[in-house]
């Protein structure tokens, strides 16, 4: 009578192990496609802005809200989204974020007015702020050691190459169909992702812990970050020395200081501020601002030069970014191997130095330049270097996090990326417009100046990497002795 149970228990674990191995094999691709969808939607919309403005009759002063309404919500809610993944469940938050993003994508595609589009884009930002840190938190929970380095390399490749691919996708869809297709295409992709995520993403083993969710801290952090993002994105039109810019900037920074003090005095904080004292985390956060600002600036300035100076259309501009996508992907792939041997300090310092060289080459763009001689060489050099830098800085921030704070630190990592990118776009677009012309050959001068400033920023970041980040032996010890080095079921 006991033979059958024994037989079943003999085969059950093996079957379970096989099923787990298969699901684990598909876990990373599902998470990467979800992140790719979020990134594609950002850069694809950038290339379609002129067509959106014409269709919805937007003025020059309001068209920027197509981007700002997204980045404002996305950047300011990432900390909250990351902590919610820890307390409410990573898969729950991933699926919730995916649902909100998809519904908002449909609303964006159906928008009949500028106001409806802005509101829908804000909804996409909310969905992305929930989805992105949850996906990154799942990766840091499911992979350890060198496997985590490889997984984060793939995540970095999606971040770097995905942005360039988004420009291409946006160019193709805008040229041959309609700007609304950029949002419609999310619907079937999201449906597949939803089905796959329920199969391969590890189920949440704990019930949602609503009591531990620091809503007061979340409101303070979100409001402060939103004030900074709003001030930065509107500084170009309001003026960098205007009262509005100063009030938003100083008020936002004061709010973040108050947030830090508040978080130090509560039992279950949204962010353990003391973790920033870790050189890898705090130094990595500062350098994340630099790397994201430089990457976003690279995309913006190359696009401005190709479209506004050389007069290229959306499709040819998109195709011009394919080499950048490939070079960033190569850099991201190489980063995992380099970091596992040399830590993050040396690779980050070196990659920023090389990125500075690429930006300097691009600063020589002329009024009657050529893509092959004036743009492509600098684009390739900067692309490889920034691919390495993106993965290195994420590894610095995320390695060594404890199981219960994966979402928290992932949210901090993503917040640094979005705030840094917003800073980069605002600063470099202001410098590019400094010549007084944004169209025609005369715009090349301001764009060249902006590339030169980007080269200086990358050079400074290279020195900061040496000063702020831990030495290789300390970082590699943390990587090898990760407290989560155990299988996740």
Q: Can you tell me about this structure?
A:
This protein has 489 residues and is mostly helical. The chain has 17 helices and no strands. It has helices at 3-55, 65-88, 90-109, 114-142, 145-176, 181-184, 186-200, 215-238, 243-263, 279-309, 314-320, 322-342, 345-362, 371-398, 406-432, 444-468, 472-480. The model is unreliable at 4-11, 13-19 and 483-489 (pLDDT under 50).
Strand content: under 5%
* CA distance, first residue to last residue: 32 Å
- Helix tally equals 17
Structural class: mainly alpha
Biggest pleated sheet: none
The helix content is over 70%
Q: Radius of gyration in whole Å, from Cα? A: 22 Å
On the 0-100 scale, what is the average pLDDT?
83
Number of strands: 0
In terms of topology, how is this protein built?
Blueprint (H helix, E strand, L loop, with lengths): L2 H53 L9 H24 L1 H20 L4 H29 L2 H32 L4 H4 L1 H15 L14 H24 L4 H21 L15 H31 L4 H7 L1 H21 L2 H18 L8 H28 L7 H27 L11 H25 L3 H9 L9
Short description:
The protein is mostly helical.
Key attributes of the depicted protein:
mainly alpha; 17 helices; 489 residues; single chain
């Amino acid at each position: 009578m006991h033979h059958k149970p024994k037989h079943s228990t003999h085969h059950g674990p093996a079957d379970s192990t096989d099923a787990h191995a298969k699901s684990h094999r598909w876990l990373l691709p599902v998470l990467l496609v979800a992140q790719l969808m979020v990134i594609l939607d950002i850069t694809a919309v950038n290339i379609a802005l002129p067509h959106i403005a014409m269709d919805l009759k937007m003025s020059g002063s309001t068209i920027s809200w197509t981007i700002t309404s997204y980045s404002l919500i996305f950047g300011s809610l990432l900390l909250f989204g990351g902590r919610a993944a820890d307390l409410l469940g990573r898969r729950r938050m991933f699926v919730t974020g995916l649902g909100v993003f998809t519904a908002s994508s449909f609303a964006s595609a159906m928008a009949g007015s500028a106001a409806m589009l802005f509101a829908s884009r804000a909804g996409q930002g909310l969905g992305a702020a929930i989805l992105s840190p949850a996906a990154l938190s799942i990766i840091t929970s499911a992979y350890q050691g060198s496997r985590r380095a490889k997984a984060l390399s793939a995540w970095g490749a999606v971040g770097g190459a995905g942005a360039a691919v988004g420009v291409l996708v946006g160019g193709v869809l805008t040229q041959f169909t309609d700007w609304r297709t950029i949002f419609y295409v999310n619907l079937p992709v999201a449906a597949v992702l939803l089905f796959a995520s329920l199969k391969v993403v590890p189920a949440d083993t704990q019930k949602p812990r609503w009591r531990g969710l620091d809503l007061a801290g979340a409101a303070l952090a979100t409001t402060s970050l939103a004030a900074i993002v709003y001030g930065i994105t509107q500084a170009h039109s309001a003026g960098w020395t205007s009262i509005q810019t100063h009030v938003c900037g100083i008020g936002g920074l004061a709010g973040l200081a108050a947030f830090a003090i508040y978080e130090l005095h509560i039992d279950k904080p949204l962010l353990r501020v003391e973790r920033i004292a870790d050189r890898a985390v705090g130094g990595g956060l500062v350098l994340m601002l630099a790397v994201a600002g430089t990457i976003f600036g690279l995309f913006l300035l190359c696009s401005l030069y190709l479209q506004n100076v050389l007069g290229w259309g959306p499709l040819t501009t998109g195709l011009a970014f394919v080499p950048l996508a490939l070079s960033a992907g190569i850099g991201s792939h190489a980063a995992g191997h380099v970091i596992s041997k040399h830590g993050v300090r040396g690779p980050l310092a070196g990659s920023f130095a090389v990125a500075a060289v690429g930006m300097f080459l691009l600063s020589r763009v002329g009024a009657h330049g050529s893509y092959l001689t004036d743009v492509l060489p600098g684009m390739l050099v900067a692309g490889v270097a920034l691919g390495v830098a993106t993965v290195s800085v994420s590894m610095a921030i995320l390695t060594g996090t404890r199981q219960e704070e994966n979402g928290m630190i992932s949210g901090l990592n993503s917040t640094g990326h979005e705030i840094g990118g917003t800073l980069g776009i605002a600063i470099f677009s202001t410098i590019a417009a400094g010549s007084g012309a944004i169209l025609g050959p005369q715009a090349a001068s301001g764009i060249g100046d902006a590339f030169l400033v980007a080269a200086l920023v990358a050079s400074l970041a290279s020195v900061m990497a040496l000063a702020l980040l831990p030495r290789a032996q300390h970082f590699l010890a943390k990587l090898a002795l990760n407290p989560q080095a155990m299988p996740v079921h």
